[in-house]
Amino acid sequence: MKKLIFFTAIFYLISFFASSALCAPAIELKWANYFPVVAMQSKICEEFIKDLEAKTGGKVKFSFFTAGTLLTAPKMYDGVVQGIADIGFSNIGYTVGRFKITEVLDLPLGFPNAWVSNHVVNDFFRKFKPKDWDNVHVLALHASPINVMMTATKPVRKLEDLKGLNIRGLGYIADVVSALGATPRAIPTPEVYDAILKKVVDGVYIPMETFRAFRYAEVIKYTTECWPIGQHYTFYLIMNKDTWNKLPDDVKKVFNEYPFEDKLAQTWNEIDIDGKKLGMGKGIQFIQLSPDEAKRWTKAADAVVEKYVKSMVSAGYNEKDVRGWISFVKERIDYWTKKQRELKIKSTTGPEDVRIK
Question: For the whole model, what pTM was predicted?
Answer without folding.
Answer: 0.88
